[in-house]
Amino acid sequence: MKWVLSIKSTIAPLLVLFLISCATVPYTGRNQLILISPSEELALGEKVSREILQKEPVCHDPSYTIPVRRVGARIARAANRPDYRWEFHVIDKPKVVNAFCLPGGKIFVYTGIFKYISSDAELATVISHEVGHALARHGAERMSLALLAQLGEIAGAAAMNLQTQEALRAFDSAYGLVTNVGFLLPYSRTQEYEADHIGLILMALAGYDPHAALTFWEKMAQESKGKTPIEFLSTHPLDQKRIARIRALLPEAMRYYHPQR
Ligand SMILES: [Zn+2]
How many domains does the chain have? Predict the structure, then answer.
């Protein structure tokens, strides 16, 4: 029964992969399935970061770059992950209200978001949220879910008498495809709330009052009533629940807070 063999040889390594792929999110303790190794994740982050720095107008104005690096360095210290290669860049696009992170610790902040930032603590809200995504490996988790969907199709193909070699080739190309585009997928609500949660703790650990998250998100909520689309809100959907959740997490975050000297 050739097809039984095919399935076995295709699925068995995947099962092993599965068993060794459970990760736990720091601070929230949620279990997650990640099929991408930390070193692959880091390499991918490096590659995409280089591409962005070549394509996008990088900002060298110290009135933006100095606060971003100052706050970024404190948050990175609080994150306590020396294996990450943290970088904090500013993109000079005054009309773009956005910030994002790449796997492994590359954070990008657009000049447009500074319209809504009036203190280091509010800037820390944005940066620590993005660092939260990186620490919780949310990009890799999205990629893994996309990969899993592809694997489902491949297992189906194997069951339909696809040769093992073909199945493995299909796996290879699906893996390449997913790892190239998977990080572009939007985060889920769960991941968004989780990045808020981790971000509040990190900003407190770094000496920024986590209450600044409320003033920042309330400004965003005010702005979302206007007609101009805000990119940050398309990837970080804002509803009443989000602000209420941040408020509910503040007592926990305050336990980590020691005002900066
Ligand atoms: Zn986010």
Answer: 1
